[in-house]
Amino acid sequence: MIKTTEAVRREVVVDVPPDRAFALFTADMTTWWPAAHHIGSAPIAEIVIEPRTGGRWFTRHQDGTETSTGVVRAWEPPSRLVVTWQIGADWKYHDDLITTVEVQFRPDGADRTRVTLEHRDLDAYGAGAAAMKETFEAEGAWGATLAAYAAAVK
Amino acid sequence: MTNATAMLTALGDPTRQAIFERLTDGPLAVGQLAEVLPVSRPAVSQHLKVLKEVGLVTDRQEGTRRLYSVDPDGLAALRAHLDGFWARSLAAFQQHASREGQNDQND
Question: What's this model's pTM, rounded to 2 decimal places?
Fold first, then answer.
């Protein structure tokens, strides 16, 4: 039995044009990202999304350590950003746990932007993935790569 | 505590986390878990009890054995947690953007 977990979808409208919204969302993440939302051993010093496809998304902490969140899958200013979110139930980064966050920036009247965020591929977490893994492995169709375990984020 | 918070708390213990990880590969009995982990059977049972209470693990009787597996419904609670996470994050982004938008106009 394959269980499909519905993606998380959220949207907000902001009073700046799309290019500005995109820039604020990415380059200014350190400023707006809720301070409690981190997985490191010390508070956030800086959140970095490297501005290119293939770039890293990571947090530098005040004790000098870094924690990864994911990688940039699509860097398409001013309209679209796709990043992976690879944080597991143990609040650690996992190479083999891949969920996807897509953010779109669409004009909404003059100088306003509708920002929609979709966090999908949630079956990579836990029960769904475990069930799929069993199914696929039983059929011999897949290797042992289907990732990871149930999870949440801070 | 919300369900998701209870789950995270339960998984904060490294042994429980290890047990849970093992179960994501498929159902196992207490004895099988005790064989592969550096803890006694009674300790494994105790940890499974906690994981079951928070809704991460479920069990069923199969012949003479009780098999433990990951609870598929647990995922729904974690999804709800993520939903709240992004709601808070985007609200924070919206606030920041509106502040910056006003600064842009004043420049």
Answer: 0.64
